[in-house]
Specification:
Layout: E1 10-14, E2 18-22, E3 29-33, H1 41-54, E4 58-62, H2 66-77, E5 83-86, H3 91-100, E6 104-107, H4 115-128, E7 132-135, H5 148-157, H6 164-183, E8 189-192, H7 198-211, E9 216-218, H8 226-242, E10 248-249, H9 257-270, E11 280-283, H10 294-308, E12 314-318, H11 324-330, E13 333-338, E14 341-346, E15 349-355, H12 359-375, H13 400-405
Parallel strand pairs: 3-4, 3-10, 4-5, 5-6, 6-7, 7-8, 8-9, 9-10, 11-12, 12-13
Antiparallel strand pairs: 1-2, 13-14, 14-15
Helix pairs in contact: 1-2, 2-3, 3-4, 5-6, 6-7, 7-8, 8-9, 10-12
């Protein structure tokens, strides 16, 4: 992976919410957005708190009407995560959100025709010391005749890219917008350039990262339901992050936004862009060799780990003796199954051989015990103690030995005819 690109750093939040740094040497942060009406205070607060509990660093809310910004002050009193006000067409909503105490503004200057109104928002944010995210998303960029020559020049520059024209427009619009902010000596800025096309998203952010020093907010817009949107989003965001591009992100789903936070965090964990909180669960994909109800076991283990384990223990749940030993050796806690039983290992040391119905409880017991040992300094995550040798498939775990003894399986002697 490439080292993280150097960008300016902005700060979001206050003493009540904690300060989230974006850019510079700060960890990549995860955002999400509420899906309900902001003026429905109780429901909005409930949703924000769910996202906060799931691990969101920032939460964005829509404020299309005055009743939404009126509700902000009470919402801010009942939440403890930085809140971003999403403003598109009405500059007054941004001013009202700033007055209410919001922690960041998301603004598309191209949607506000009057330059004085844009300047008023910039000045209000500058006085309040809150940052602004500028968006040049594919679906919202607007052509302007006075920039046509610049766009044509950029279009020729990006002629070798199938997305050259759109990238040219995005960069031209960013230059145009940033000129407005620079005139007001405002630099607490974050940039986004989303698209529904994963490859365009990769190309656009790659070119933007070369040209601007401001932190980048990554996302694939209109990604769709989680089933397909997760692939579309991870392809683009994972590629960019691996190439050192991106300071904050939102994975967007037409689904419960808590999934956006969970999947965004998992992406960062997998790329070592954030320190994992809670257990890491790995499991085999299942096949004809499994000898327990692995799917149900994995789901039950996942839920229990999420509720009870808050340090990054690596837990492996494997369905047979083929891949199980190797995974058990590399995991802190592992189980691999055979003949309706499971052998449980703790850092390579065998600790139990239990019936299938006892696997879940014993595995969780070992996880809880190991977590306490790590907290007390009696154990260290990731240690490998011994090499695990797979058991004889017709021996202790396998079913073959009993079948052979009963005469149900023909014995073959190698080397004889």
């Amino acid at each position: 992976m490439q080292p993280r690109a150097t960008t300016r750093q902005i700060k979001v939040g206050n003493d009540s919410t904690g300060i989230i740094c974006i850019g510079g040497d700060a960890p990549v942060s995860v955002q999400s957005m509420t899906s309900g009406y902001t003026h429905d205070i109780d429901q909005c607060v409930k949703e924000i708190n769910r996202l906060d509990s799931a691990g969101a660093d920032l939460v964005r809310v829509a404020v299309p009407e005055a009743k939404d910004t009126i509700a902000l002050k009470e919402i801010l009193n009942q939440t403890s995560v930085p809140i971003v006000a999403d403003v598109h067409f009405h500059f007054q909503r941004a001013l009202e959100a700033v007055e209410a105490g919001v922690h960041k503004i998301r603004l598309n200057p191209g949607n506000i025709a009057d330059r004085n109104q844009v300047n008023a928002v910039i000045d209000a944010c500058k006085d309040a010391r809150i940052p602004i995210r500028i968006g040049v998303n594919e679906g919202s960029i607007i052509e302007r005749k006075d920039k046509q020559k610049r766009k044509e020049e950029l279009g020729k520059f990006f002629a070798d890219s199938k997305h050259g024209h759109l990238i040219a427009i995005m960069i031209a619009k960013l230059e145009e917008y940033l000129d407005i902010f620079h005139e007001r000596d405002f630099h607490d800025i974050c940039i986004s350039a989303k698209s529904m096309d994963s490859s365009l998203t990769i190309d656009a952010y790659t070119e933007i990262a070369k040209r601007f020093e401001y932190p980048l907010h990554l996302g694939v817009t209109h990604a769709g339901p989680r089933e397909t949107g997760s692939i579309r989003s991870v392809v683009a965001l994972g590629t960019l992050l691996a190439n050192g591009i991106g300071d904050t992100l939102r994975i967007s789903y037409a689904s419960d936004p808590v999934y956006e936070v969970e999947d965004g965090l998992e992406l960062l964990y997998c790329l070592a862009k954030r320190t994992r909180i809670g257990a890491e669960l790995i499991a085999c994909p299942t096949c004809g060799r499994i000898q327990v109800d692995l799917y149900t076991l994995v789901q039950e283990v996942r839920k229990k780990l999420a509720d009870e384990i808050d340090i990054p223990i690596k837990v492996a749940v494997m369905g047979c003796v083929v891949n199980g030993p190797g995974e058990a050796e590399g995991a802190d806690i592992a189980v691999f199954a055979g003949d309706r039983r499971g052998i449980i290992y703790v850092q390579g040391q065998r600790v139990a051989n239990v019936k299938e119905e006892e696997i879940l409880d014993r595995l969780l017991e070992e996880c809880r015990t190991f977590q306490e040992k790590v907290r007390n300094g009696e154990a260290t995550l990731g240690e490998k103690v011994v090499e695990i040798i797979p058991p004889d498939p017709i021996g202790e775990l396998g079913s073959g030995k009993a079948r052979i003894a009963a005469g149900d399986v023909e014995q073959i002697t190698i080397g004889r005819t």
